[in-house]
Amino acid sequence: MRESRYSVPDELNPGFEIIASLREDQIKKLSNTIKKLPRGVGERTFFKAISSKIDVENKEDLALTLFSLGALLNKEKEKDTKKIADHLTFSINYYREKKFQEKQLNQLTSNLISLFECCGNIKNTFKALYLQLEQHNVFRDSHLITDIRPVFGDNLDEAENFAIIFHKLRIEYEQNGKKNNFFVALDRDDLDNVREQIERAIKKESILQEKFKGTIKFINPMD
User: Fold this and answer.
1) Which of 7, 103, 134, 212 is a Cys-bridge partner for 216, taking CB atoms 3.0 to 4.6 Å apart?
2) Are 221 and 125 in contact (CB under 8 A)?
3) Angle subtended at Cα 17 by Cα 95 and Cα 177, rounded to the nearest 5 degrees
4) 3 state DSSP class of 164
5) Three-class secondary structure of residue 44 per DSSP
């Protein structure tokens, strides 16, 4: 008995249903749109391009599923896109409660083959993402809270009031696919020091981009 080669997340199924229903002219238009996108195109740019060029309902579902094809191609060692499309079609149908009809399966496979042939630029985006994730701890989010605390002397009836201002920084990071966070306390000197280091890092990035702009195209996976 044939086994499913891929695990298909539920959130991608609506997009695959749309792909299975697309006509040849729609697939051609979609393929041309993807081909014209720069290599290493980020998620936001990709979603915006797909939404503006294809006239279907639930464009977000379609864009999400199409973008995921880059991740599949990046992981897949098989180079024959026809075989990949065949395996993916079987896996999609394998997990569905309401199975596709034979005609829909053939249409889905055919459309996937056409789309795979133009997804090389998305594949580079996922290469960049995986390079980032290979780092032990990957920054995900931060939040800075500023607070004031009164300082009381022995005599609580003293008219003169004292207080300190401090800041609490929460850092959220990802480690081996799991999100974690930690807190650090900072004073004004710490904030100035962090700001100086961030400004220096931004300046160094700008210098590197300017220096190599003629020979290297830099990728921002989330742009």
Assistant:
1) 212
2) yes
3) 60
4) strand
5) helix
Smallest Cα–Cα separation from 13: which of 95, 76, 106?
Answer: 95
**Polymer length in residues for the chain:** 223
The count of other CB atoms within 10 Å of the CB of residue 192 is 11
- Note whether 145 and 61 are within 8 A (CB): no
The phi-psi region of residue 163 (left if phi > 0; otherwise alpha if psi is between -120 and 50; otherwise beta) is beta
Q: How far apart are CA 5 and CA 11, in angstroms?
A: 18
Q: Specify the amino acid at residue 149.
A: R
DSSP state of 127: H
Q: How far, in Å, CA of 167 to CA of 209, rounded?
A: 33
In 3D, which of 90, 80, 94, 23 has the Cα closest to residue 56? 23
* 182 DSSP β-pair partners: 171
Structure tokens at 175: 């480690």
Burial of 50 (0-12, 13-18, 19+ CB in 10 A): buried
Does the pTM exceed 0.85?
Answer: no
- Dump pLDDT digits (tens) for 37-70: 776 667 777 788 888 877 788 888 988 888 888 7
Q: Which residues pair with 148 in a beta bridge?
A: 165
Single-letter residue type at 172: E
Residue-wise pLDDT tens digits, 92-126? 999 888 888 999 999 999 999 988 887 766 666 66
